[in-house]
Amino acid sequence: MRTSTVNDCRIIDIRRYSDTRGFLSVVEGGLDIPFEIKRIYYLYMVPEAARGAHAHKELQQLLIATSGSAEVIMDDGKEKKTFVLNQPWKGLLVVPGLWRDLEHFTKDAVVMCLASEKYDATDYIRDYNEFLAYKGVKE
Ligand code: T46
């Protein structure tokens, strides 16, 4: 996905069901999102320092702040776009081939990631210059 841009990422409304007992939200792989879910991980008790600072070559993700809030800054090498995650029924669909930084976690923030692939360290680009070269923005 070398040609993906920040405009390919979008916030989706996650299905929710409410009654007198409160709310229940659900995400089904292949139905609510365009990929099957192979892995779930979540970030929490994040201090001041930002997380992320990498791109994925193939991984597709849905990021949800199930509690609290955090910012996700997507970057395609030419343009940056900031998404605020602060509702458990909103999810950010992240396409492959984009740099991301995660910042400004509130103390109570839990950011959950539904991922299209199992963990693969070789799917990460952790050097920003390498990322720019991958996107064809820089030699
Ligand atoms: C992403 C953002 C939002 C594993 O062993 N298995 C896993 O499935 C994951 C996700 C991580 N790890 C290990 C690898 C590292 O030693 O956990 C440690 C911390 O991972 P990382 O430095 O990649 O954490 P973040 O917050 O920078 O990035 C993570 C995800 O890795 C990444 O896919 O998009 O959250």
Briefly summarize what is shown:
It is built from 1 helix and 12 strands; from the N terminus they run ββββββββββββα. It has 139 residues and is mainly beta.
What does this entry look like structurally?
The protein is mainly beta and about 140 residues long. It is about 5% helix and about 45% strand. The strands form three sheets. Strands 1-9-6-11-4 form a five-stranded antiparallel beta sheet, with no helix packed on it. It has a five-stranded antiparallel beta sheet with strand order 8-7-10-5-12. It has a two-stranded antiparallel ribbon with strand order 2-3. The protein is globular. It starts with 9 loop residues before the first strand and ends in a 5-residue tail after the last helix. The mean pLDDT is about 95. The structure holds dTDP-4-keto-6-deoxyglucose. The site of dTDP-4-keto-6-deoxyglucose has 10 residues, from strand 4, strand 5 and strand 10. DTDP-4-keto-6-deoxyglucose binds near residues 39, 51, 61 and 100.
* Low-confidence segments: none
Helix content: under 10%
Integer-rounded radius of gyration: 15 Å
Bound molecules: dTDP-4-keto-6-deoxyglucose
**Topology as H/E string?**
EEEEEEEEEEEEH
Number of strands: 12
Give me the side-by-side strand order of the main sheet. Answer: 1-9-6-11-4
Shape from CA axes?
globular
SS summary, helix count: 1
Largest sheet composition: 5 strands, antiparallel
Distance between the termini: 18 Å
Overall pLDDT, averaged? 96
Proportion of beta-strand residues: over 45%
State the secondary-structure class. Answer: mainly beta
